[in-house]
Amino acid sequence: MLTLYAPQGTVAVAAHVALEEAGLPYTIHWISIIQGEQRSPEFLAINPKGRLPALLTEYGHLTETPAILDYIADISDKFMQSDPFQKARARELISFLAATVHVNHAHGPRAARWSDDPAAHVSMAAKVTETMADSCSVIEAVLPNAGWFLGSYCIADIHLYAVYRWFEGDGVAIANYPKLAAHFAAMKARPAVAKVAALHG
Ligand SMILES: N[C@@H](CCC(=O)N[C@@H](CS)C(=O)NCC(=O)O)C(=O)O
């Protein structure tokens, strides 16, 4: 049995959707970021980075959304291309989402990670709409006019859905990115996604 440690909302939505879509048996262990449970000794024993999500497998814990998504794709034999180049393209988008877009977003709510200066927090947060809009332009340019990122549904589509949920709150005018908006609508229409979204609010 897999156990996903997850707060509501956040990038953990991606791992949750992947588990639900895969049809694998799993349970959710909710962790409250608002109450600081990611810093509790119990959770730090699971993930010393104090970040979510984390996935407990029969072999031990996994952290980092790209690794968790890869693992779920591998054990379910779903949601990953078999062609090496297409597989690398899926990982290319996932890497961009994790290493650039998520970090751009975090400069708003999590600016204190990078500076102790309150003025710098304000300055970093002021840049988020611009960096997230830049990220949207990059993604819009690689999405097809219709359908999934690589033609068949894969973990990159799932990761993109979780990250997409931040764009409007970060001040990005989604109407400027019609392919991205259509992709989000297609994701929301999937029963597994709707089920998970209802749990995350
Ligand atoms: N690279 C990690 C980032 C995980 C991450 O930063 N998660 C946030 C929630 S979106 C978190 O745990 N924040 C808690 C904190 O900063 O204390 C991943 O992609 O899974």
TrEMBL record:
The keyword Thylakoid does not apply. One of its GO terms (molecular function) is transferase activity. Residues 1-80 form the GST N-terminal domain. SUPFAM superfamilies: GST C-terminal domain-like, Thioredoxin-like. Residues 83-201 form the GST C-terminal domain. The keyword Magnesium does not apply. Gene3D superfamilies: 1.20.1050.10, Glutaredoxin. Keywords: Transferase. This is Putative glutathione S-transferase.
